[in-house]
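Lecture 7 notes: from sequence to structure.
We start with the chain below.
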Amino acid sequence: MGGKRFTYLLVSLAIAALAMISSCQKDSSMTEPDTSKTTLSDSVIMASPRNFLAASGTLSVKFNDSTYVFDAAKDSIAFINVNTDGSTRYFGITAINKEHSMSFGISSSGTAYSNINRSIAGGQFILSPDEKTLPMQLSLSKFSGQKDFGNINVIQYNAGNELAKGTFYTFLAKDDKANSPYYRVEGTFDLQFK
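Predicted structure tokens for the same chain:
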């Protein structure tokens, strides 16, 4: 059980680190390559060289009665591939908006490719509407009471100009306690390289 908890923590930290890196890259004055794919790297984790910052497209996240949209033209959205120990692999999506008031990350075990449907291994959604309001943080909880933590369905991956396209749903809780309520979070992604 401790190993699974450590793996979940490591994947969550990888998602957060890549969100910060992609956010800094999006905010900087660096020019984007014309047709080549943008690669992220992070020496803190054993990241695969196949982490891509989307140049266009959207990630939509539906929570309760609201839909939150990340737009790659202004926000930072990355499709990540992580190798944690040389044999365990994860893939997922991480995003942070330009104002740094909203971030989202979701991951699954295995390797990304087109036409797959995989179980969710990690997830986090943070909303910080303003400086006076405490942030709301939801994350995947082992105590959610769910035997099914959700799925990510990748319809298309790394084909032509399409970085990744698909849907997902998961169940996130406000804390990691046995009686904590959980919420269904679902969404879509359609991300392009240019």
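Points to note: The chain has one domain: 2-192. The helical segments are 2-27.
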